[in-house]
User: Fold these one by one.
Assistant:
Number 1:
Amino acid sequence: MEKTVNQKAWFLVLPVLILVAFSAVIPLMTVVNYSVQDTFGNNQFFWAGLEWFQDMLSSDRMWEALWRQLMFSGIILAIEIPLGIFVALNMPKGGFWSSFCLVLMSLPLLIPWNVVGTIWQIFGRVDIGLLGHTLDRLGISYNYTQDTLAAWFTIIVMDVWHWTSLVALLAFAGLKSIPDAYYQAAKIDQASRWKVFRYIELPKMMGVLMIAILLRFMDSFMIYTEPFVVTGGGPGNATTLLSIDLVKMALGQFDLGPAAAFSLMYFLVILLISWVFYTVMVNLDKKGM
Amino acid sequence: MAKITLDNLAHSYLKNPSSEDDYALKELNHDWVDGEAYALLGSSGCGKSTLLNIISGLLEPSQGRILFDGKDVTHAPTAERNIAQVFQFPVVYDTMTVRDNLAFPLRNRGRDETYVAERVQEIASMIGMEDMLNRKARGLGADQKQKISLGRGMVRKDVNALLFDEPLTVIDPHMKWELRTQLKKLHHDFGHTMIYVTHDQTEALTFADKVVVMYDGRVVQIGTPEELFERPEHTFVGYFIGSPGMNVIPARVEGNRAYIDGTELALGQGYGALDGKVEIGVRPEFARLSQTEGLPVKVRRVEDVGRHKIIRAEFFGHDINIIAGEDERVSADMNRVTFDAGHVNVYANDWLVKGAA
């Protein structure tokens, strides 16, 4: 068949190109621009080369924030994924109570992030907060503004409260897609509850769980608002996660160059971890777990 | 293997069934004889699968009892009944190999590995999957997956019964024949009690010793394929079995005569007074088109289906079908029909009435 050649078709891509340019490329290049220059104000810039990157790579401050960040993401994933699956497995499968649970669980997902932070900030206060006061009355020393362990406990419980529902909802959707015949066949094959989970439910949930893990990893790795509202990164720097540190550096100290280099590396780390995770999961999936 | 007895069994999906219409499965008494192959035939929604699930224990009946060799298992869980069931859509454990899939029911029952290996090998050769044993079940085609399901159903030697719930729906036509033949052979070799649910009459008639026809939650007839063909107990059986189904024509019956719109027709037997809706039923195979004898008929269309011709005609305002042999001549002046008197059945309120010679 003869194909007509019409270069005007390129104009059809133009709107997307403009949109992407303004939403992603131009802001990113601005950051790249900052990262290789130094400024003393007055809009005067000097070429700095890769100096900021070297600075950042040898800065304890960034490495510490990165470790804290990895620990935070690791802990919340280790809690939220199994807990979400557990909740999904124990939810009513249909009828009024199923819808009721779904609505109840979506509630935390609908609350704005700084409101979540404020809720927990007040909830944990020893003088007026229900949690803080109760713990205090029980004789447990709990003060998230002074104690590192208490601060970590608070932001982790807060994240689990806020986001486990997402994992549970996704896992529930995966479970609902399993036809009854699978469970009936398992009964006939005399499979134990564990084997039903291991060989029927888990494989069928794998797809949505991958999405859940990826979403929760990326979100938690970029988390800012909630811990900032609760602890402000403290006590000391105990809960200063990557983005909190970045904002401090860029807006608090106005160190644009280092902050730009920092954020580029931050971006690459997220990209790299997500890519590695995705590749590994897809390969496992191909091999059948 | 066991004899399965259904005693006063009925089931409703409603909590408080009030009338008979609320029952998906109406009261039923039946013995499934040990070692026979049964087909449960009926259209969709007639209660076939409900009955099957009650036998396998996936569903608890609202009333009545089920006995395996005289032992009441009505409330026993599926695992205790020791039955195997194959479902309409293939159920395989995707992440396991074909071998592990086949071994699964045996391993769950704690059989030792040498026995498991031996059985798996036997079953694999039976379903023709020996060279695929080490492959993951994921990624196999629907018919191969279904063969694994069949294999998993057959791997246990001591099952009380093998239940099939329309297992060949997803299989290609040529594989259907092959698998059905294998099932028949299996039945022949091992003598398991088999119950095979289907809505396909060919499948039912070729597979089973006895066909159980269900209609609207009720068993309307249990019989050999010949019995179903020659003496349908219910108009539904006549209509459902046969291609095309039996002709059912409203009539008035007096003694050994039937009157259709006042025209007399001889019957093979005599009948007493009949109440309600009275009809005569005659299979297209026992009707013959003629130039001179019989009752007037208006031929509409002749379909040549290869082995024979199907004549679609109008008979006193009713549609009837007549089957003529492949070589039989059908001409425009053939406008009469005769029925083989011995094969004209009489139905009152849809149920067969037995006459006296």
Number 2:
Amino acid sequence: MSELVLTSLRKTYGPTVAVDDVSLTVREGELVALLGPSGCGKTTTLRMVAGFIEPTAGQIVIGGRDVTHLPPHRRDTGMVFQSYALFPHMTVAQNVAFGLEMRNVPKAEAEKRVADALSLVRLGHLGERYPRQLSGGQQQRVALARALVVNPGVFLLDEPLSNLDAKLRLEVRVEIRELQRRLGLTTVFVTHDQEEALTLADRLVVMANGVVQQVGTPEELYESPANLFVAGFIGRSNVLAGRLVSPGRFESRGGLAVSVPADGRAAGPAALALRPERLTLAEPGAPVAPCMNSATGKLVLVTYLGATSEYRVDLRGDEVLTATLPTPPASDPLRRLAAGDPVTLTWPADACRLLAPDGAHDQGG
Amino acid sequence: MPAAGPGRRWLGRFALRAVATVVFCFMFLPVFFVAWISLFDQQIVSFPPDGYTFAWYANALSRPEFARGFVTSFQVAAVATVIGVSLGAAAAYAIVRFRFAGSGTLNTLLLGPLVVPGIVAGTALYVYYVALENALDVDFRATLHGLVLGHVLLTIPWTVRLVSASLVGLDRAMEEAAANLGASPLTVFRRVTLPMMRPGLVAASLFSFIQSFENLELSLLLVGPGRITLPVAMLNYLEFRIDPTIAAVATMQIVIIGALMLISDRFVKLSRIV
């Protein structure tokens, strides 16, 4: 396994910029997920690593070797395709053996490695079948075995779970993660599903419009989103537009004054992101600890979700906050709240994340 | 609609079978009659037959023009199929894989031979060959290569259609997967693309061969002495005699072509492509 280094990778189609200045290092044995909405450039980036798309500018280095201008068959990457792309005219064993054959591995050794790879994905007994005789999940595992049997320098996965049903997706997800850990595979994984990315990856790369928005561990992205896009894309966020009036003091457009952590940001227009689960709900008039922020408003909607309940609170005019709370016990007076009731929301200053306002660019992380 | 009772369902199934039987009969009736008439024991065909005989088969086999016609037709069809399918498959590959200016027009143009009546195409080719002969000082009229070139035209539309269909259904990711596993572009084509095109190629070859083998109109003006194709030989015979010999020849041709289809069906299930 090798380290993968992308430097200022860029791809344009005429005036359209598909991928803009992507730099990324995937360490040996690390699983990095490229995450973003469709058309954000994540698949283009992956296909540039595999060699199916020629970058307009930038450099791709796999294991210290510059492969930027090498054709796909000389890159030493192992790719799993969204459609699996198994060869329908070959048996499962022949499919898996294909890469070894191309590398002129002696027949006896190849047979052993194919058998090992198939038992690794628990398909040792199906080698003689044809792909069309297998279920979707089994085909998926053949595709994994076929890509892994050649010990590629980098393992690439393009939305590998999107064709599986929900239950199977969870199983295969765990399986891929285990394999990846056990074999120490340097892996790049493309997905549009944030839950998939959060649970699988060591680090995530959030992309939008061809630009990397933030790179970080799942925790970093969730707790400290770099900008409004990440705050809204990874989990959910309440966003208040306004301005930082003085260090540690934010005032929303609707006039709500909030104390925020003083992070050295200069006074000026800013946006405030608040995770719904960091808000607590109280009846108006209930005592509020002095270190807490609070806002009163009118409850507009209560959504019962079982373990949690969601409260949508209209502050003033167009400012709305959503709070997610563990569903209170039936005896709790909060359970009797209904739409139209006045309520108070409270939250600590450190739950606030100050970000550049919409439209401004704020990169980092 | 009320739920169909067992009686109704039975009626539906009966109607389906009845229609299928009628259609099959309609399609096989000519074949059946040709085979039947070839055994009639009389010069002028009339019903009911006076008796049955294999004499017409003996007559057909004893006449050298039919045997020679069969050999010529087979040669022309085989060579035209090889050339036409190679060209047509290459054209289909280019049209499906590469978007270039005029690829749509080319696609339509290649279907041209299906649209132009054979006799018109034959006349046009004849005139064209005369011009070519004057310009190049090489014979084209009444030669085997002239005939083969004409028949190549017949094979191309079928090939382009059938091979395009097999290519359109081919997931590009498969070729990418092969490249990703270390196959050079040539190996990708040989090991993945070509095998995936195989059903289309087999069907195209079969259709092309039959199209060429049974073609009369285009060949009429292009054949020469000693290079008469079987359909032209049959027409020549009919000009002087109407006896069941022609039916015997036709029956033998049907049997041979039917056998060819059965053989290719062993390699590629025709029902899956056509």
Number 3:
Amino acid sequence: MTTKGNGTSGKAKDPVLVVVQLSGGNDFMNTLIPYTAGMYYDNRPLVGIPEDKSLPINDTLAFHPSAAPLKSMFEAGKVAIVQGIGYPNASRSHFRSMDIWHTCEPEIIATEGWLAKVIRHFDPKSENPLTGVSFGRGLPRAMAAPGVVATSVDDLDNYGLMTSIEAGQRRAEDLAIFKRMYTPAIGSGLVMDYFGDTGQSVLSGSDLIKVAPQKYTSTIEYAGNPIAKSLRDVARVHTADLGTRVFYTQHGGYDHHAQEVPSHARLLAELTGAISDFWQDLREHDAADNVSMLVFTEFGRRIKDNGSGTDHGSAGGAFIIGDNIDGGLYAEYPSLAQADWERGEDLAHTFDFRGVYGTLLEQHLGLDPEPIVGGVFEQLHPYKETATA
Amino acid sequence: MADERLATMAHLLRRAGFGASRDELDDYAARPYEEVVDDLVNPERFEPLDEDVLERFYPHIFSNKDNPAVWNGRWFWRMVNTKRPLEEKMTLFWHHVFATGWTKSEHTPSMVDHIEMFRQHGLANFRTLLLAISKDPAMNFWLDNSENHGDAPNENYGRELLELFSMGIGTYDEPDVKDAARAFTGWTFEQPLPLYPFGHYGAKFEFRPEDHDNTEKTFLGETGNLGGEDIIDIIVRQEANARFICRHIYNFFVADEPQIPAWSVTPPQDQEAIDILVKAYTDSDADIRTVMKVLFLSDFFKKARAKRVKCPAEFIAGTLKLTGEFREIEPGLAALDAASIVMGQKLMDPPTVEGWHTGKEWIDGGTLTERINFATARVGNPDTPGTRAIIDKLSGSGDPVTPAELVDGVLDLAGPVEVADETRAALMQLAELDGDLTFGSSTDRIKSDDRIARMLSLVVASREYQFA
């Protein structure tokens, strides 16, 4: 990696990854619906989407009616649907499964997130705290690793230290003392060092990131829901050319054990509307062509509904979205034949999520995936041949 | 360096409560440590808070009882003003363990009752608590037990009961989850009266025998027509239950452990301490009060000063103890909830059933910023009551105060806060900018007051202040 920043000065722009995590276990079977399969309606008398309401993309599969914006993007060739994503011996615990997705370690509890390793690669000396930026509360495990600095921003419009003191000599002196207090010292321990690193990165990051809201203008009017706000923040920082290579956002509430029908519809409408607005926004800023978006969840849900919602399942689905994507269906939709169900009740995965990470790492970010995902996994080929890798 | 006795008492009060003002600390420290512990674990000896005063002075807020921010503000007021600090602390602890969120139900009265239940049973036998939580309507709805039917079981509560509330992953198998879930079929709640026009009513537990699965179940090796109470009895007999709950207690009251999903594969940092707590738990038949007393009297506890990162609620309440705010009626209670949210902890609304990730995971660039900005803005004003008290103590004699006396005096009176040499050196750099503090003229005095407040604001911005 020799290029710096993602400026538009004639040089190829550095590739950027935007991750959207759907927390709680998105019901993939109700997101991309096998709308002509009798078993779907047999097993989902309550949460099944009526055939005449679903949005077909071919003879067997249809989008949920609330995912119309995503369907439009799919038809425009911008969306690679990864059908049947998962990993062996799926954990039905939200937390354990999310841990596995974040660290690529299904057997042990790992301390390094996969995106933290990416950030470390792009910024080995932690020179730019904005190399990885997460919007929302707390840094996801995927972006956390000892010695890796990433920035977590809740409110992009007021980010900085001791903002109650007016800018001036006194505040500058106080921040200098603060900087000295947060200098990592030998022997103070990992947690204190982490605090030190975090304090230092806030100091430098807040100076850098405050230009983003000032520079940004757009004709796109995002909705007011949390995922729309987060993706707008991604757009504001990305278009400010601050050298960010990894963005992370989360959309919560997908744990639909109950009341799935109204709630899932609302979430999918929020999500797909926000994604569509986000890509329009990037195109308006001529800032779309170096970006790939991954939308994932920790697991899919049980085939059979429970009379109100669905319990935790195994295989889910993911989306890779971008202007350099050769849109279409990738991997195989999990077998609907009962004999193939995992544990006799779940869709079985057909593609390992580490192969999807590998696809993004190698074909988009230009990195060797093996040390990041902990092995060699089959990849997809969703990028157009002309795309710059 | 801080007086050891004072430092240990301050530590006890940070852990068993939310800290203390300097005057409170001096009063406690004048008594034997064991006697203070005995009082803390027996909160009934002290008067409960009179909340009528809030109803009287905050009518506009308390006419809006459906808003959780109001109740969280009230909870912060309790943390600061209670004469029963451990009662509030146990309430917060169990809220961390049995993490139940408002977001799903949006039913404030049931969440208020849920928190009050912890206040009532926080030091009780664990069996009592587990039964109460299993009957708690807010929990019941949160984990879909109201959708757990005899002919259509819903595993959510059964699974989390074992994984997160009592045993820990790896101590049971999938069939145990399924049969535990079946044992809780029919445990639901009556629909509460609507807030308008009837007023503030929580939902009530209801058992529906016709919706209960009466067939045979096998749970952790015991077979029979087991019901929910049987499941709880079996759980509390397991060594895994004692170890899991004692580790939770250790994690919250002694020193930060890794996040809960790691517990099945990462042994406790202090196995000996866990063994001591497990013995107290087992010998007392799961009496939480006994365990807490053993804990606070133990050497491993006394040695664990600053081994935990304060959670946002502790950070806010502890800072208010320092600033002396909200001891009288004053506006701004609901704003404390907003402050807590941006630090990553919305009380009554944890992000998932796993609860908040604690320890260093409280801290990232955003939340550290919020903490520092909250604390520095408050203590940095010389007219904040707690800041004024520190100024008065430091300037009492009217004699000049040297830069070293300024640094050490503020560190002592703010906690004591024990800091690394490097931190003290940084504070000395600030203190030495303007030489000795003098109090001769009113101009000198105003300037010196401001310097003390400024020093205090940098002390609360330090790394060390983030630890309990």
Number 4:
Amino acid sequence: MALKALDIFKLLPKTNCKKCGCPTCLAFAMKLAQKQANLDQCPDVTAEAKAQLEGSAAPPIRLVTIGTGNSKLEIGNETVMFRHEESFYHPPGIGVVIPDNLDDNELNARIEAVEKLQFVRVGAHIRSDIVAVENVSGQADPFAKTAAAVQKLDLPTVLMSKEPANIDKVLESCKDKRPLIYGASADNWEKYAAIAKEKQCPLAVSEADLDKLAALTEKVKAAGVEDIILDLTSAGISETLQALTAARQLALKKNVRSLGYPSLAISSSAQTAGEQVAECCTYIAKYAGIVLTGLHHPEYILPLLTLRQNLYTDPRKPIQVEPKLNQVGTVTTTSPLLITTNFSLTYYTVEGEVEASRIPSFIGAIDTDGTSVLTAFASDKLTAEKIAAFLKSDAVKDKVTHKKVIIPGYVAVMSGALEEESGWKVLVGPREASGLPKYLKTVWKSE
Amino acid sequence: MKMLEEARGKWVGSLNEVVIGATKQQGGTRTSTVTVGGEKTLPFLAYEGPTKNRPVVAMEIWDREPEDWPNSLMEALGDAVKSPAEWAKKCVEEFCAEMLCLHLMGTHPDFGNASPQSAAAVVKSVLAATGVPLIIWGCDHDETDNEVLPRCSEAAKGEKCLIGAVKEDNYKTLVSFCLADGHSLIGLSPIDINIAKQVNILVSEMGFPLDRMVMYPTTGALGYGLEYVYSIQERSRVAALGGDKMMSMPVICMVGQESWRTKEAKASAEEAAGWGDENTRGVFWEIATATALLQAGSDIMVMRHPAAMTAIKNVINKLVK
């Protein structure tokens, strides 16, 4: 629970020495409460006060970094149970588990498959952004070999083994990459905690239930490991969902520090692919910081990445693209001109279909305050006047000479008014963007 | 489990329970009925309390053969789609559907313009062919629905169907027929929680019982606005658990309809290189859309592909033990 300025003030030296840059200790306390200052700026604060203040200033769910450099994964530091209350901030890592018992060809093929799990959706690059290596062989050498081969993906890595010595051996060569060590359990936690502390790597901690897990994270923390991931994978999807939700609830609402870490869940392979996809989706929606699966084909992973992208958009911001004339492909003055709105979902759906048609085109994104075609039409934000003004603007004048414009099928009713207003020939396109490739290839071609 | 007890939410309200279908004893001809709603917790959190009634999957059938459904979907359904009664039978006997949603697309002026009489005949044929409860959905063209749905309501009198959809500005005709014929109603509100409540109030002010109403906040497929409906449904579940009786109706989602019109479900292998197997891509899109909406709080999932339906039924059974 965050402290108020006056509570913080009571713990400060009250000397008004100004060494922190603030005129008084109270002013400094106010800045601390607003998180605009750092306690380190006060040279005279007592160790006791420092511990107390740092404890209360820490976020309820710790931010943990796995990996390094551009591909690093940051998870945790979430603040709400429901995205409509504010937003979800740190999208979960979604990754494939690669076993260490594959032969060389299989291993290379698997790594290649994981490399291809990246896509462009609504203008954003989304990908499977973590990878796990599982020591199913129980041997040190195959584990080390597989872990080394996976390095070329340049992704944050999870090293999964029941043998601390096998993990230790792999870490000799890759501890600088900050892989996640998986993981400590009741009977071996001391060894894992020692490795994690020495190699400065995050550590996943597993237990039978939340009570025992909370007790174990306290021990691991006392042993000097700060970056902990809760492994909440339980007997089945129901138990795991409950553990994920309860841990989030307890950390945020009950201030349970021993569960204030990001979580990890692994889907069970003992079910159909469809059920595994559903299991992963459940964990993405409900609070997992890392979701791991044995599935590695794009038709399984693309839905997971898309769901993550959907749920981690900030609901407070209407998502818009810049209202302007956009070009897709190598356009000429005779390329088709399509009209749509500047709602990003609408715009990128249209853009994606135009790209798929392979017919270079202009897309005019009309400023509708980021609303979709039907909503904008209903609220007079997509009108014949507005489109006519756009067609007459300098942006369009020299770029398009044929004076034909394609409008969305849903606003066909404005054709007459728009022809009158603009002097352009109005063509009514399909209602759904998915009809655009066919439309451009047939109707437009014959124009 | 001290921690789980500690995490339990303190809810005061619950969702209304709605029964769909009537057996012979209850004045209909159904061999089974479906009860949805009644939940007192956030979805599937056994530590907050048991799930009163598990969410149910209804398979969507049409009164006419669909034209633009992707091959991977049409192949799974086969020739049965040529006859609504055969299609219904196949869903129940082969795919084990517990409920059907008959979508009267063929009555739309631009899509067949079938007469109210022929639509009512289709309803009767589907009821005769199967024993499961039936959802009857218009073509979302207000004037047509006001002509067609009353005839269907009469044709299915006593069967306790779920009929939709009524809207803020078009509800009176259908409400009076459903009230007289004993059916339940779907209230449509496009991703707007205030309109959803308004529709519920308007319908209940006509004397329609709250426990015969279901909400349809419209559905967005994964990647196509899912996040909006997801949050609307979460907010509406939280409002219901908080005790708002005018937001306590079970929620229906048109998962199949929305999933199967996405590019991910439709695009050929050449159009969507790198997106994976063209024959199963749509199935996983439908599964992912349904799974996410179940977590937001949904009671009736209307789905199209038998494999997707089976997967979701299995997942629901694992989530509610």
